[in-house]
Design brief:
Length: 339
């Protein structure tokens, strides 16, 4: 009866609570004017208390190492380390934790790597959601949390910039759910303001999804027009979940992106060497999101939409074969540096 009463009170508060906007200036990787909810902050605090007891007898680094052992199927060497992407310098976004194994290089499992002898793991717990300069992931988007990197320089793609990108990803644990709300972003180009991102690669409802915003279409007279009301999500690949809500299947993603409000814009996505998405035309709108910054890692949203608290913890993706280049030839050169 008490639990039913608590749930009823939370639902009533959620329906009555007004979202308010946080005006954020110069916060790397954070959406400006992001809607925040005090109720989700309260729910996140309750989850943190639960997680502290639930993880009481094991350290983060041992738990994260065990996750990867479970995915790989045997013992591994686990070294906390920031992911290196050949061709670009990255830094930590939103106080992401790495020293505790939130990011780690995995050794002694070369047969499991997508390319070369090593790969990386990224692990996110909702109980570690962070706040920074009046912005809170815990209060954002039904409860968010991340372990993520952002490009050192502010803008990876400016107006007229073309670059090629490659990385392989595996949804290892607590990523693949029958849930349309929860989203697990594993790469994006962020304009650093507003709620629309230029593009995002994410897992959602057991699918790998491309979200492509700022598209345009040609009218009968040949003129380009902003496609504000077009569906911007496209399924790139479907998965079957195993018993730990993950998959042992690698997926290689290669992208060609030219960011411009002119007609020669390009967004192509190859999945496992097959062209899965192609758009030719303006990729930004003049004066609006005409530049964006690359982010890589794991950014989880709507964690509190899960009734299973264990599923809000130990969210793991594996990442390998990371590189970026100014053209395809440069990309391949940088990709070959991955040993």
């Amino acid at each position: 009866m008490i639990n039913i009463l608590r749930i009823s009170i939370i639902l009533i508060l959620l329906s009555l609570t007004q979202l308010y906007a946080i005006n954020i200036n110069d916060i790397a990787g954070i959406t400006k004017h992001a809607p925040q909810s005090e109720i989700y902050g309260m729910m996140s605090n309750e989850h943190k208390k639960w997680a502290k007891e639930f993880h009481n007898e094991i350290s983060d680094i041992d738990r994260y190492r065990n996750n990867v052992r479970e995915i790989v199927g045997h013992d591994i060497k686990f070294e906390p380390k920031q992911i290196k992407i050949n061709g670009i310098n990255m830094r930590i976004s939103m106080r992401s934790e790495i020293k505790n194994g939130g990011m780690a290089e995995i050794l002694n499992a070369s047969e499991f790597a997508y390319k070369g002898n090593t790969f990386y793991s990224v692990t996110v717990d909702h109980s570690k959601c962070k706040s920074k300069e009046n912005f809170s992931d815990c209060m954002q988007d039904s409860g968010s949390s991340r372990v993520e990197l952002i490009a050192e320089k502010d803008w990876t793609w400016k107006e007229g910039t073309e670059k090629w990108l490659n990385y392989a990803v595996m949804p290892g644990k607590n990523i693949l759910f029958n849930n349309r709300s929860r989203r697990f972003t594993v790469g994006q180009c962020h304009p650093m303001q507003g709620e629309m991102i230029n593009w995002m690669i994410k897992f959602k409802n057991k699918n790998l999804i491309l979200r492509h915003n700022f598209r345009s279409h040609q009218n009968d007279d040949g003129k380009w027009e902003q496609s504000k009301y077009y569906n911007s999500e496209f399924t790139l690949k479907k998965f079957k979940a195993n018993e730990i809500n993950g998959s042992s299947e690698w997926t290689n993603i290669k992208m060609q992106f030219k960011n411009t409000h002119k007609e020669d814009g390009i967004l192509r996505v190859w999945v496992d060497d097959n062209l899965a998405y192609e758009y030719l035309g303006p990729t930004s709108w003049k004066g609006d999101r005409d530049r964006c910054t690359f982010k890589l890692g794991l950014y989880t949203n709507a964690n509190l939409k899960s009734v299973n608290k264990e599923g809000r913890e130990n969210m793991v993706v594996l990442i390998d074969a990371m590189a970026i280049g100014k053209n395809e030839e440069d990309l391949l050169k940088n990709l070959n540096k991955d040993k």
